[in-house]
Amino acid sequence: TSCLFFSIFLVIISEKEKQVILLYYYEEMTLKEISQILSVSESRVSQLHTKALGKMRSVMGDYLGILTGGL
Prior knowledge:
about 70 residues, mainly alpha, 5 helices
């Protein structure tokens, strides 16, 4: 099941969105830390995070909540 998630993840979100999601959920970094790595504002990181989750939810629906702990 996580393989399916990852496959969809790679196809539907942009490269910057992927970086934000990976750093936030897998590296457990804060938005501030991610903003420093990507050289963008915290606000932009938040926008990218929200946009990526929205894209994934539109494809995966309720299944996404299971994988992200209900976020």
